[in-house]
């Protein structure tokens, strides 16, 4: 029996202390997490890690992100939350969440959509918009039945691996060979690592470009796939351009998530990157909630909201804090 946190030294031993992870770490740039120090054994330096994965993408020797997540779980030492035990999500779904009153309009079961905890509990209007977009595109889709938490390691550091992985593999079994589409790149990353066949929404839409609508009033957009889906940046740009939008050419980055000391600085960078855009388009429910809570910030839509609204269904956009322009 082992836990996420027990395997940490296997990855640490492979570190050659080159410091590349530091150079690419957005949190370190703003005085937050120090990935090299964490790799050398100082778990206290993991605070403000946003889990972006830049360190692992840049490292040629080991997997620092796995160490960061495990170290974070050690430092937090959080028991499995009551919300998860009660609902199967890491937080409680709320009737007060924006869009909780919008009933999804699923049209079939050829494709299972796995929303993840943030879409389900924080921005449920994204789930509604996804059902609308899928229906208009002629995709028979519905929500994956049962609990749909990807078991992101930080919150489950005290759980035995066998139990945690059991939850993940059961989602694959529930899908029963049907295509599974994730709304969050973090879910795709964790589930794929444990052998569950699934795909992030961006490549899914990219593989169905012929079914995408054209916007009546194309806007300038900046594009943010989200840290865990950053490999799909080019596909996401092609999707929005296919719909008639003009990409302002921004490089993708991290919204700052819930980082205590660096979130504001990281979000300020993203707002600056979107300076020439009328609208930010995101591929991550966490990004959606964070951008939409910036006072005076750029309007933002999750990618399926863009599709649903271009088909004429703007209901989800009425749930936003920052008004979204016509397109
Ligand atoms: S984790 Fe990788 S990138 Fe960071 S110091 Fe070690 S070997 Fe270098
Ligand atoms: S996951 Fe991102 S924030 Fe965390 S240490 Fe790696 S690069 Fe830094």
Verbal overview:
- This protein is of the alpha/beta class.
- It folds into three domains: 4-76, no CATH class; 82-206, no CATH class; 212-319, Rossmann fold (3-Layer(aba) Sandwich).
- 39% of the residues lie in helices and 8% in strands.
- It is built from 16 helices and eight strands.
- The chain has helices spanning 8-12, 20-24, 26-29, 35-39, 54-58, 64-76, 82-87, 117-121, 124-136, 161-175, 185-193, 201-206, 233-242, 263-273, 285-291, 303-310, and strands at 111-114, 141-143, 179-182, 199-200, 220-224, 246-247, 279-282, 300-302.
- Strands 2-1-3-4 form a four-stranded parallel β-sheet. The protein has a four-stranded parallel β-sheet with strand order 6-5-7-8.
- Helix 9 packs across helix 16.
- The chain is globular.
- The N and C termini lie far apart (54 Å).
- The mean pLDDT is 93.
- The structure holds iron/sulfur cluster (2 copies).
Brief synopsis:
The protein has helices at residues 8-12, 20-24, 26-29, 35-39, 54-58, 64-76, 82-87, 117-121, 124-136, 161-175, 185-193, 201-206, 233-242, 263-273, 285-291, 303-310, and strands at residues 111-114, 141-143, 179-182, 199-200, 220-224, 246-247, 279-282, 300-302.
């Amino acid at each position: 029996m082992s836990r996420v946190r027990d395997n940490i030294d296997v990855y640490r031993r492979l570190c050659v202390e080159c410091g590349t992870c530091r150079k690419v770490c957005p949190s370190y740039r703003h005085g937050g997490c120090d990935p090299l120090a964490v790799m050398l054994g100082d778990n206290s330096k993991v605070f403000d890690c946003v889990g972006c994965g830049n360190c692992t993408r840049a490292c040629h020797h080991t997997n620092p992100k796995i160490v960061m997540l495990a170290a974070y779980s050690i430092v937090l030492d959080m028991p499995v939350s009551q919300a998860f035990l009660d609902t199967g999500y890491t937080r409680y779904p709320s009737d007060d969440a924006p869009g909780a009153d919008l009933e999804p309009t699923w049209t079939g079961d050829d494709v299972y959509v796995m929303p993840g905890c943030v879409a389900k509990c924080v921005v449920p209007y994204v789930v509604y918009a996804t059902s609308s977009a899928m229906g208009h595109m002629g995709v028979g889709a519905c929500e994956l039945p049962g609990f749909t938490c990807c078991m992101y390691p930080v919150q489950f550091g005290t759980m035995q691996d066998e139990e945690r992985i059991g939850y993940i593999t059961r989602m694959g079994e529930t899908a029963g060979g049907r295509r599974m589409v994730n709304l969050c790149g973090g879910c795709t990353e964790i589930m794929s690592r444990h052998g569950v066949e699934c795909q992030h929404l961006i490549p899914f839409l990219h593989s169905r470009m012929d079914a995408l609508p054209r916007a009546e009033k194309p806007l300038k957009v900046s594009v943010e796939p989200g840290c865990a889906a950053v490999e799909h940046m080019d596909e996401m740009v092609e999707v929005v351009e296919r719909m008639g939008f003009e990409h302002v050419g921004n490089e993708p980055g991290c919204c700052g998530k819930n980082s205590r000391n660096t979130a504001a600085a990281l979000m300020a960078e993203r707002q600056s990157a979107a300076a020439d855009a009328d609208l930010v388009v995101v591929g991550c429910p966490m990004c959606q909630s964070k951008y939409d809570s910036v006072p005076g910030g750029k309007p933002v839509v999750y990618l399926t909201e863009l599709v649903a609204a271009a088909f004429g269904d703007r209901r989800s956009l009425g749930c936003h804090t920052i008004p979204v322009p016509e397109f």
